[in-house]
Amino acid sequence: MKKIMLLLASLIVLVGAAGCFNNTESADTAGQTSGTAEGSNASDGTDSGDNELFFYTAQNKTYEDEASFDRLIGQYIRKKFPDITLKHVHWNDGTRYEDLIAKGTIPDIVLEETYRNTHRMIEKFGLEYDMSDMVKKYNFDIKQLDPGSMEKTKTASDGKLYALPFELNDYVLVYNKDLFDKYGVDYPKDGMTYDEIYALAQKMTRQDGDITYKGYQQHPSHYMYYNQLSEPVLDPNEDKGDLDSPEWLKIVNNIRRFYEIPGNQFTTTTDFPKGQMAMSVDVIENVLNWSVDYPDLNFDIASVPVFPEAPAYKYQPNANGLFITKESKHKDLAFQVIQYLLSDEVQEARSRDALISPLNSEAVQQAFAQNIPQMKDKHTAGIFALKSAMPASRKPGLTFINPPVQQVFQPNIFDQSKDSSTALRVVNEMIDKQLAETKAAVEAGGDGTQYQ
Fold it and tell me: Where do the structural domains in the chain lie, given as residue ranges?
């Protein structure tokens, strides 16, 4: 990342977008403060006046670089609100939620993952604030936002509105054009079913001399966690798992058959740039990185495969959102800033820098990656060819955990060769146990974050 930031401004933007949805809680970089936006004071979170807006970025590693924060967020705030002093702190500079709470320096706006970390971080530290009244007061049209992202945010907010989605990550099918050309096979297209992609995977998985070419790869855990059929992992009405259903068996067997193609055992999608993989489903941020790091890689993208019964739907959304904190003294100003950051003007500009917008705007989508020369001839429309699958709703007040769906495949199927029904049952029992333990911990006065 650092070396590319020395290149042209467009490449700085691209690398800034890369890695943006990685969980940064494990990072422990040195230094206690970040730089500040132009005109701001020291960035340790100390209060310096009624015109100050404190912006805390807990997700998206892009923003640990102050220049990137200023280019992708700060400049727009200063343009629209020239009279405010903008203070910015990023998680990776050594300032965590605990540090802010200890100092009594609460941010006005927090950028955070909107599903899991609403529970693990925002609610844990008592920062949750329902923006529903603000939405009405400022006549903000939430219908302009991706419905799936809004539903996921509301579910995580116990039916309230603790955040508004701000930037999305998404999955695409990336394919090696040279391999398809070499073997005379037609390229994948938007909207192809899993059956059609499976047929392509069978054709493209082959041994050619000493080289084994894999036809298709993807991470089963992502495929399940964000499944396109909107099947719930946690029961919508009770504190128990919901993996013991015919629908989940279908979901598992659908992807398992790709793994069982001789020679196509799943390894890692990050091997795609090595040139021995015909197709892979991966996050767009990795694809953007490959376009820079592997300039000779002849690839293109299409939408992810679909189920015949849900032909219009890609994965459920993976979103970072903007939260206003309960203790903020500048809630109205904070909401106006968020409203502006979600405007067509700002979102189209950010889209040109390859950040996926939550806006349902054709113009914003068409602008995607226009500032990235390496993506000029790529089929970026494939990112937006399908709608986000709707997350399953869940009754407010139920216990939340981060369910270990990845363990269905690893280790139960990949290492232990369990049949799909058994693998699902084993993990469902794990979920039930974790829910019971989390619920007991909360009832005993704990924060219940052991499995979150």
Answer: 4-169+318-367, 171-315+392-443
